[in-house]
């Protein structure tokens, strides 16, 4: 994997009181990659429309865990660990939320030029179930040719 990567993050929520999934959300951006102590790290900046400044993001991937840290306009440290519930505060410009992340499945598939992570988790806000969610993170070398989401 090269230092310069393309990153795709997509998610889908299945709300408790709705029929079928909600609208998928997807972000594709450039970032920096490195590997340290058998963990994969991705760094990228995110701009929120309507707000000055940006949010610095760090994604850490290990075999059974996806770890996302945001610092800037929004601040949070979310840990998606297989078969473990993690609770944290998500600080946004609109206020803070207490969120619970209960990951049931974390799959990491790795090749020389691509890392594909899928997570299935329950999301709680203020200790109340909100949704069943899926998140997919695809990390690909920029030199690897066309970037296609799978």
Q: Spans of 5+ residues with little confidence (pLDDT < 50)?
A: none
The helical percent reads under 10%
How many structural units, i.e. domains? 1
Mean pLDDT across all amino acids: 89
What's the Cα radius of gyration? Answer: 15 Å
Account of the protein in words:
This protein is mainly beta. The protein has one domain (4-144): Lipocalin. The protein has no helices and ten strands. Strands 6-5-4-3-2-1-10-9-8-7 form a ten-stranded antiparallel sheet, with no helix packed on it. A hairpin with a 6-residue loop joins strand 3 (39-47) and strand 4. The protein is globular. It starts with a strand and ends in a 9-residue tail after the last strand.
Pick out its properties.
150 residues; mainly beta; Lipocalin; 10-stranded antiparallel sheet; 10 strands; globular
Could you provide a short overview of the structure?
The chain has 150 residues and is an all-beta fold. Helix content is 0%, strand content 71%. It has a single domain, classed as Calycin beta-barrel core domain (Lipocalin, Beta Barrel).
Topology diagram in text:
Elements: E1 4-15, E2 25-36, E3 39-47, E4 54-62, E5 65-71, E6 76-81, E7 84-92, E8 95-110, E9 114-125, E10 128-141
């Amino acid at each position: 994997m090269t230092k310069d990567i393309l990153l795709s993050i997509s998610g889908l929520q299945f709300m408790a009181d709705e029929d079928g999934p909600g609208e998928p959300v997807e972000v594709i951006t450039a970032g920096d990659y490195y590997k340290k102590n058998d963990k994969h790290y991705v760094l990228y900046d995110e701009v929120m429309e309507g707000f000055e400044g940006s949010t610095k993001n760090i994604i850490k991937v290990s075999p059974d865990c996806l770890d996302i840290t945001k610092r800037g306009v929004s601040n949070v440290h979310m840990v998606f660990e297989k078969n473990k519930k993690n609770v944290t505060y998500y600080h946004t410009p609109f206020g803070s939320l207490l969120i619970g992340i209960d990951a049931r499945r974390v799959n990491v598939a790795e090749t020389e030029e691509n890392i594909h992570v899928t997570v299935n988790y329950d999301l709680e806000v203020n200790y109340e179930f909100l949704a069943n969610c899926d998140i997919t993170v695809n990390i690909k070398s920029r030199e690897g040719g066309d970037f296609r989401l799978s």
